[in-house]
Amino acid sequence: MSETRRVFLLGGAAALLPWPAAAAEQLHIGAARGSIDFAIGDSKIFRTTGSFREWQGLVRVDDADVARSTVQVKVNTNSIQMMDAQQSEMLKDADFFDVAKFPNMTYVSSKVTRTSDSTLKVEGAITLRGTTRPMELAVSVTDRKPDAAAGARYARFRAEGSLKRSEFGMVKYIDVVGDTVDFSIRTDAWR
User: Fold this and answer.
1) pLDDT tier at 24 (50, 70, 90 boundaries)?
2) Fewer CB within 10 Å of terminal CB in the chain, N or C?
């Protein structure tokens, strides 16, 4: 068989093989390159803020099929930090995060929908104090660099959402502070 005919046959056989879809990217997010901040209070007069200092997560980005993208985040509840040290310690006790019994809270996505070129709606569930409830996040993606090297920033993510703390058994001082907790996650994502 001539070399030209062999190359032609091999090329034809390769054309019959299924074309591989673009590989999904698995990216890391976490406290090393980001923050989870929150604000508590239904009134503009009384509103207090804080953050979690230890957290990590994985984001699976599938550009070919955005609905197959996923997000998982694990937060160390003992890493809660308020401006006042007394408040930080109070939020760790059994009336609030009960960090001795529930050292982590988690978020796992169930559905990702593109809402514009740079925004997504992420639906999922948060588990806090042993209770799991649905939670939706509004996510924006900026400064995307798909060719970034391993360890380098791939993109910046910002996610916003809210929850009712009473749904997780944290009802102390609701009449004074309020029930709604708004939060913001800002993070770089890296390979």
Assistant:
1) confident
2) N
